[in-house]
Design brief:
The protein has 77 residues and is of the alpha+beta class. The protein contains two helices and five strands. Helix content is 17%, strand content 35%.
Length: 77
Protein backbone atom coordinates (compact mmCIF):
# COMPACT_ATOMS: atom_id res chain seq x y z
CA UNK A 1 0.00 0.00 0.00
CA UNK A 2 1.21 3.46 -0.88
CA UNK A 3 1.94 6.12 1.77
CA UNK A 4 -0.40 9.15 1.80
CA UNK A 5 1.01 12.02 -0.24
CA UNK A 6 -0.56 14.83 1.82
CA UNK A 7 -1.26 15.47 5.49
CA UNK A 8 -5.00 15.75 4.81
CA UNK A 9 -4.97 12.11 3.53
CA UNK A 10 -3.19 10.68 6.59
CA UNK A 11 -5.56 8.44 8.61
CA UNK A 12 -6.39 9.21 12.24
CA UNK A 13 -3.66 7.91 14.56
CA UNK A 14 -1.08 7.60 11.77
CA UNK A 15 2.25 9.41 11.70
CA UNK A 16 4.06 10.87 8.70
CA UNK A 17 7.09 13.01 7.94
CA UNK A 18 6.71 16.45 6.37
CA UNK A 19 8.45 16.55 2.98
CA UNK A 20 7.50 20.02 1.74
CA UNK A 21 4.99 22.86 1.95
CA UNK A 22 3.31 24.09 -1.22
CA UNK A 23 1.83 27.36 -0.02
CA UNK A 24 2.26 31.09 -0.52
CA UNK A 25 4.84 32.88 1.62
CA UNK A 26 2.40 33.98 4.35
CA UNK A 27 0.89 30.54 4.89
CA UNK A 28 4.31 28.89 4.65
CA UNK A 29 5.65 31.14 7.43
CA UNK A 30 2.61 30.42 9.60
CA UNK A 31 2.89 26.64 9.14
CA UNK A 32 6.64 26.70 9.82
CA UNK A 33 6.07 28.81 12.95
CA UNK A 34 3.65 26.11 14.15
CA UNK A 35 6.38 23.49 13.65
CA UNK A 36 5.40 22.05 10.27
CA UNK A 37 8.85 22.02 8.67
CA UNK A 38 10.39 19.46 6.31
CA UNK A 39 11.72 16.50 8.27
CA UNK A 40 9.32 16.93 11.21
CA UNK A 41 7.08 14.04 12.27
CA UNK A 42 3.36 14.81 12.35
CA UNK A 43 0.50 12.71 13.73
CA UNK A 44 -3.23 13.11 13.08
CA UNK A 45 -5.04 12.85 16.42
CA UNK A 46 -8.64 13.62 15.36
CA UNK A 47 -10.68 14.78 12.39
CA UNK A 48 -13.53 17.26 12.61
CA UNK A 49 -16.91 16.21 11.20
CA UNK A 50 -17.71 16.95 7.58
CA UNK A 51 -15.02 19.36 6.45
CA UNK A 52 -13.88 20.27 9.94
CA UNK A 53 -10.28 20.84 10.98
CA UNK A 54 -7.62 18.25 11.74
CA UNK A 55 -6.20 17.99 15.24
CA UNK A 56 -2.51 17.20 14.74
CA UNK A 57 0.60 16.82 16.88
CA UNK A 58 3.97 18.13 15.71
CA UNK A 59 6.68 17.36 18.24
CA UNK A 60 5.23 18.39 21.60
CA UNK A 61 2.77 20.87 20.06
CA UNK A 62 -0.87 20.09 19.28
CA UNK A 63 -2.76 22.29 16.84
CA UNK A 64 -5.92 22.49 14.80
CA UNK A 65 -5.36 22.83 11.07
CA UNK A 66 -7.89 23.60 8.34
CA UNK A 67 -8.16 20.80 5.80
CA UNK A 68 -7.32 23.11 2.92
CA UNK A 69 -4.09 24.07 4.72
CA UNK A 70 -3.34 20.42 5.55
CA UNK A 71 -3.70 19.63 1.83
CA UNK A 72 -0.67 21.87 1.19
CA UNK A 73 1.60 19.77 3.42
CA UNK A 74 3.29 16.99 1.42
CA UNK A 75 4.50 13.89 3.23
CA UNK A 76 7.60 11.80 2.55
CA UNK A 77 7.04 8.39 1.01
Amino acid sequence: MEAPARLVDLPTGATGTVASLSADQGLRQRLEALGLRPGQAVQVLRRGWWSGPLHVRVGMTELMLRRRDAARVSLAA
